[in-house]
Write a structure and sequence with these properties.
By secondary structure, the protein is mainly alpha-helical. It has helices at 6-31, 36-46, 57-75, 78-84.
């Protein structure tokens, strides 16, 4: 009756892997701007969304996903598409 199911896990996943990295990146950028070690840790923990710590990185993240989509449709293999993009 009070268990955790699929919808609850989906909400937790979206909050942790989408909203939290975006909020944390903007908070850290305002609090401690220009610290290389913060950017490295954010990129390691949250992959591309951690790079939002750097100003102007959102454009490059969008370009990364567009390149991945293009390579995936051309080649058909997701792993090779990630390596190429």
């Amino acid at each position: 009756m009070f268990g955790i199911g699929g919808p609850e896990l989906l909400v937790v996943f979206i909050i942790f892997f989408l909203f939290f990295p975006i909020w944390l990146s903007s908070f850290l950028r305002k609090r401690w701007p220009g610290k290389m070690w913060i950017g490295l840790i954010m990129s390691f923990v949250f992959a591309p969304l951690g790079q939002l710590y750097v100003e102007g990185a959102a454009l490059w993240i969008i370009i990364l996903f567009v390149c991945h989509y293009i390579f995936k449709t051309i080649i058909g293999d997701a792993a090779i598409a990630w390596m190429l993009s």
